Amino acid sequence: MTKTITLGQFIIEKQADFPYAKGELSRLLRDIGIAAKIVNREVNKAGLVGILGDNGTTNVQGEGQKKLDVYADEQFISALRSGGECCVVASEEHDDCIFINSEISQNAKYIVCIDPLDGSSNIDVNVSVGTIFSIYRRTAVNGPVQPSEILQKGTQQVAAGYVIYGSSTMLVYTTGKGVNGFTLDPSIGEFCLSHPNMQIPRIGTIYSINEGNYIKFPQGVKDYIKYCQVEDGATLRPFTSRYIGSMVADVHRNLIKGGVFLYPTTSSHTQGKLRLMYECNPLALIIEQAGGKATDGFRRILEIQPEDLHQRTPIFIGNIEMVEKVEEFVQLSEVEAIPGSF
Ligand SMILES: O=P(O)(O)OC[C@H]1O[C@](O)(COP(=O)(O)O)[C@@H](O)[C@@H]1O
Ligand SMILES: [Mg+2]
Ligand SMILES: [Mg+2]
Questions:
Q1: Which sequence ranges are marked TM in the entry (predicted)?
Q2: Which ligand is nearest to the CA of 92?
């Protein structure tokens, strides 16, 4: 019989891997795991307890909030507040950062960026949703937290992860030393190690993009989609198109099966739609740690200097070969668009 390793045990075992190992980051990850279990419990019975549907409010992006968006946000913030290791939370659901000023968080060193519930449009129809998080360490030793400490590049993440509330509930995270996945065992109420050392397959045959936006895509992305659809045995084309509409679920599937997820700029989202700080950076770190790649077509996602908490970016993320093929198309069409070239 294989030994069960819970998330809590795993975190303690791996604590020595952390550069500043004093147990705070371990406790922070544990707090996120606890909030995830609470959110999971409500997601599972949402239809019964009246928390499906719209909340009647909008967030800073002008997007309608679902009741579960608000519930998940409250749970994660409350867990981070009472844990004492986090001094600032940046959440999709709040215009500004939330500064945690309590006695127990006086010496807190960590900053958390979070999308409490990703894939809102899927909540009411019983399709997978998730939580995405990113953890940074304060750059100053003490004193009030400065904006530059919050707007750090993705390369500075000390940990990142996601929870997917799907056919089973999983928590996947990295501290920059590989990626490990834990499945929630409802019989004991614990996340247990089920996917050690996750690696994205080198060859992928899935492309994930909202093709309903086709006419709004840049030419290079349109060309890449056509490339995916052309038959060619040597490259296993035509590729399969799969799009769930929850980034976390689309990226999780591609992490396990191999594939590329694309959310480019469109004529209606000229900066891209997905948010750098709490959607793209954490998933980019996970995918890179699993042997894949994440870019905006030109730059590594993790090297983009954020200028705003809710900044958006185009993203192409998945196994290296597929992402590099997308980049080839995107970059070529940019060159062709320069007057006088070709
Ligand atoms: O409906 P679209 O334009 O394809 O966008 C889907 C994308 O929007 C998101 O739902 C945005 O996330 P939120 O639900 O957290 O706002 C992503 O998860 C998903 O990939
Ligand atoms: Mg989201
Ligand atoms: Mg969200």
A1: none
A2: 3
The annotation status of 279 as a binding-site residue, yes or no, is: yes
CA nearest to 91, candidates 115, 60, 67, 61? 115
Helix (H, G, I), strand (E, B) or coil at 259: coil
Q: What CA–CA distance (Å, rounded) separates 208 from 206?
A: 7
Judge whether 187 is annotated as a binding position.
no
Residue with CA at minimum distance from ligand 1 atom 1:
245
HEC letters along 164-188: EECCCEEEEEECCCCEEEEEEECCC
pLDDT value, residue 341: 61
Domains located in the chain, CATH noted: 7-195 (3.30.540.10), 206-337 (3.40.190.80)
The mean per-residue pLDDT over the stretch 136-158 comes to 91
Peptide bond into 238 cis (omega under 30): yes
243 is in an annotated binding site: yes
Q: For position 126, what pLDDT does the model report?
A: 92
pLDDT mean over 79-95: 95
Residue 273: CB within 6 Å of ligand 1? yes
| Token couple for 222 | 């349109």
Q: How far apart are CA 211 and CA 245, in angstroms?
A: 11
The protein residues having their C-beta less than 5 angstroms from ligand 2 (an ion) are: 115, 118
Q: Are residues 130 and 118 in contact, defined by beta-carbon separation less than 8 angstroms?
A: yes
Confidence (pLDDT) at 296: 98
Please give the single-letter amino acid code of residue 299. R
